Amino acid sequence: MTIVKVKYRINRFTYPNIIFIITFPLGLFLIGILLHNCYKTSMAEGKLVNNCVLWMHWIWNHIRNFVTFKFITKIEEPFIVCYYTIEDNINYISLIPNYINPYLCTHIIIGFASVYNCMIDLGNNLNVYKDVVKLKKIHPNLKVMVSVDNNNNSDFQDMVLNHSHRKIFIQSVLNVTKIFNLDGLDLDWEFPAWAIKPSHEKIHFAQLIYELRKEFDHSGQKLILSAAVAAPRALIDQCYEVPTIAEHIDFVNLMSYDYHFYVWYYPVTDFNSPLYPHFLETGYLTSLNVNFSANYWVLKGMPRKKIVIGIPLYGHSYKLYNPSNHKIQAPASGYGDVGYLGYASYPQVCLFLKNGAVRVFVNDSHVPYAYKDNEWISYDDISSISSKAKWIKTNGFKGAMVYSLNMDDWNSTCSSNYTFPLTNTIKDIFIKK
Ligand SMILES: *[C@@H]1O[C@H](CO)[C@@H](O)[C@H](O)[C@H]1NC(C)=O
Ligand SMILES: *[C@@H]1O[C@H](CO)[C@@H](O)[C@H](O)[C@H]1NC(C)=O
Ligand SMILES: *[C@@H]1O[C@H](CO)[C@@H](O)[C@H](O)[C@H]1NC(C)=O
Ligand SMILES: *[C@@H]1O[C@H](CO)[C@@H](O)[C@H](O)[C@H]1NC(C)=O
Ligand SMILES: *[C@@H]1O[C@H](CO)[C@@H](O)[C@H](O)[C@H]1NC(C)=O
Ligand SMILES: *[C@@H]1O[C@H](CO)[C@@H](O)[C@H](O)[C@H]1NC(C)=O
Ligand SMILES: *[C@@H]1O[C@H](CO)[C@@H](O)[C@H](O)[C@H]1NC(C)=O
């Protein structure tokens, strides 16, 4: 069962409309005659439901369908799925739920809970969950979900192992969604059956999704099920039983970012989340972009209408080895100074630019980078995110996921009086016809 957000929009029609003026009274007149005859025949036959009444019913249905079809169009609004993370060790002031614009997103996914003794464990910040859920009072269509990941010694491995373990988990999820009035669960296991982990995890993960769906549907709570999934081809092949997942999940959040960041074994600058490959890339490298990953998921059997494309609201910073070589694929010697472990939020990037960094937009990949002295940052801004949002619409994907609201400019650092500029960019493009 998929949960589709449907919005009804009444089309405008103009008065006076000559056809309407003629047909409306004529229609009323004909219906009047029919009603009169119906009344007469049903009196004569002495029974209430005769053919005439059935005919009236038939006419009424057609009028109703015509009016619905003509004046009320069903619009499937694309999703804007926003991760909101409960921060701990990031050194700038945290975004608190009160600062979130309730109309910005269609879904807010709160991260991250863990799996402990096969049960979901929300941790110590229960009032943060409650405060985010309160946003639904302002925007009743907003869906608030919880994401469980495998940090904090979260034990997915043991939980998926057999049916009884999974059952304990599912019951604990149903308990928590009911208590906190949450709309669903997001699974963020990075990654089943990957590296040295046993290959049966791939099947067990798909099994977990199947069982969650079954129990969600029986629970009487209208719960949404999603999963954050990998973007690189090797992981997609190794970790996911795509057809089974596709059948039972509402949508997947494609983590189409972190394609490149500083690593010691490949220490060169490159893009966090390019839409397309760039001119220097050949072979395997041409698969490290949003367009490739999304289409690969489709090829493996995930319907486009269940794929939500991930957009990072952070960049990756590098320390340049030689400040005069600041192109893409320039040698780097470590994380940059901006951000935390190379993760730079959008307001931090804005400050970097305000301090004189040079921005270069690479047309091939539809993303910018910026550099100054030893510092080099790949990031997403309003132009790159506009490109991605338009691409999502024209390619028929379900919507955009942002990681994360915390990294957007929620306190007007980039331009005064404008909050959440990146997420708002997506919203503006999705609303436009
Ligand atoms: C981390 O896991 C422990 C149990 O292992 C739990 O008590 C704690 O609340 C968790 N912390 C967070 C932030 O989820
Ligand atoms: C599930 O696994 C646990 C731990 O390995 C074991 O104790 C339990 O008996 C298993 N349950 C079933 C139904 O196999
Ligand atoms: C349900 O969740 C609440 C809050 O997390 C917890 O205190 C309680 O023990 C859970 N109950 C069951 C039966 O799991
Ligand atoms: C995007 O992906 C599709 C399908 O893999 C491919 O045919 C197309 O060439 C790609 N576009 C670009 C610009 O790389
Ligand atoms: C990128 O595109 C813009 C606008 O289409 C153009 O002005 C610019 O010269 C292009 N840059 C490169 C490096 O091709
Ligand atoms: C937001 O920015 C203002 C002005 O720059 C600052 O005074 C305030 O502390 C910031 N608020 C938060 C919650 O960071
Ligand atoms: C920001 O908004 C305030 C209050 O609405 C207004 O007084 C101020 O001029 C605005 N600043 C800018 C730069 O638009």
Automatic annotation (TrEMBL):
Gene Ontology cellular component terms for the protein in this record: extracellular region
Annotated InterPro entries: Chitinase_II/V-like_cat, Chitinase_insertion_sf, GH, Glyco_hydro18_cat, Glyco_hydro_18_chit_AS, Glycosyl_Hydrlase_18
Top-level division of the source organism's lineage: Eukaryota
GO biological process, alphabetically ordered: carbohydrate metabolic process; chitin catabolic process
Keyword annotations: Glycoprotein, Glycosidase, Hydrolase, Membrane, Signal, Transmembrane, Transmembrane helix
Transmembrane segments annotated in the record for this chain: 12-35
Annotated ranges, domain GH18: 78-433
GO molecular function: chitin binding; chitinase activity
SMART domains: Glyco_18 (SM00636)
Matching Gene3D superfamilies: 3.10.50.10, Glycosidases
Family named by the database record: Belongs to the glycosyl hydrolase 18 family.
Protein name: Acidic mammalian chitinase
Phylogenetic lineage: Eukaryota, Metazoa, Ecdysozoa, Arthropoda, Hexapoda
Gene: LOC105366556
